[in-house]
């Protein structure tokens, strides 16, 4: 219910400690699998369309960039570029580390939630608790732009936001999210669908369209061409991945 991302800085610190704890678990329990047949260092199959949306989703933070930019003390181009590079770089390092160690430990049949692979212990139970804390404290970072977008769609331009409307939108988002959470049992399924639709739109389609719209009257230079290519690429990714995930669900 807080109105600024800056209000989430303390909970975000706790979430970061939860991430560190999860990394420690994966590193501590790392043991190379003995059956080499379970490890495929390179393979090409249609299942990539099921995993690619999750990859796209993991790096989708564009929806918060305007709020972050507006709340930075130094929001110069150099500063915001440093923030973006540090955020994406650290995320990529953590993702790759956990993914590689988890895969080498359990092989190609590793669960989408690698923490569930480990034997029960207080140490692992703490990791599961850390994951809960991570999700709980990360949720407001997604609810904040969702509420802002919903307010723009439903509200009138330059109209003052009412307190009732603010709390009503937030409560509705919370209830709908809870319904999805208790309905879906497989984490990779929901991430695949979100990655195929929302993340692809935010990461590829809209940035390309915005750039094209801004430079619509300009000559066709490399930047404008790449913007169109990016949008088309996003549409193709959405079509292929969404179709694959729907077929995967209906076939079970």
From TrEMBL:
Please provide the record's keywords in A-Z order: Amino-acid transport, Membrane, Transmembrane, Transmembrane helix, Transport, Vacuole
Report the membrane topology from the UniProt record: Multi-pass membrane protein
Q: Where does the sequence pass through the membrane?
A: 12-30, 42-62, 83-106, 121-142, 163-184, 190-212, 224-247
Record-annotated Amino acid transporter transmembrane domain positions: 1-245
Q: Where in the cell is it found?
A: Vacuole membrane
- Cytoplasm found in the keyword field: no
InterPro entries assigned to the protein according to its UniProt record, in alphabetical order: AA_transpt_TM
Name one molecular function that GO assigns to this entry: L-glutamate transmembrane transporter activity
Per its UniProt record, what Pfam families does this chain match? Aa_trans (PF01490)
- One Gene Ontology cellular component annotation? fungal-type vacuole membrane
Q: Isomerase as a keyword?
A: no
Provide the family line.
Belongs to the amino acid/polyamine transporter 2 family.
Its name, as the record gives it, is: Amino acid transporter transmembrane domain-containing protein
């Amino acid at each position: 219910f807080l109105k600024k991302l800056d209000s989430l800085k303390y909970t975000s610190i706790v979430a970061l400690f939860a991430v560190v704890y999860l990394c420690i678990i994966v590193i501590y329990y790392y043991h190379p699998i003995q059956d080499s047949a379970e490890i495929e260092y390179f393979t090409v199959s249609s299942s990539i369309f099921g995993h690619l949306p999750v990859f796209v989703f993991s790096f989708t933070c564009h929806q918060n960039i305007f709020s972050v930019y507006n709340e930075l003390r130094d929001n110069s181009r150099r500063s915001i570029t440093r923030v973006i590079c540090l955020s994406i770089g650290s995320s990529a390092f953590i993702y790759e580390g956990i993914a590689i160690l988890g895969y080498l430990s359990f092989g190609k049949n590793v669960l989408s939630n690698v923490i569930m692979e480990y034997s029960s212990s207080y140490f692992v139970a703490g990791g599961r608790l850390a994951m809960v804390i991570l999700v709980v404290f990360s949720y407001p970072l997604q609810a904040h732009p969702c509420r802002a977008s919903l307010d723009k769609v439903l509200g009138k331009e330059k109209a003052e936001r009412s307190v009732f409307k603010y709390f009503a939108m937030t409560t509705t988002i919370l209830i709908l999210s809870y319904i999805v959470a208790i309905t879906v049992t497989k984490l990779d399924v929901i991430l695949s669908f979100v990655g195929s639709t929302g993340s692809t739109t935010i990461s590829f389609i809209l940035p390309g369209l915005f750039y094209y719209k801004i430079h619509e009257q300009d000559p066709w230079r490399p930047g404008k061409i790449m913007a169109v290519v990016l949008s088309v690429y996003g549409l193709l990714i959405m079509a292929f991945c969404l179709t694959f995930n729907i077929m995967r669900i209906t076939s079970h």
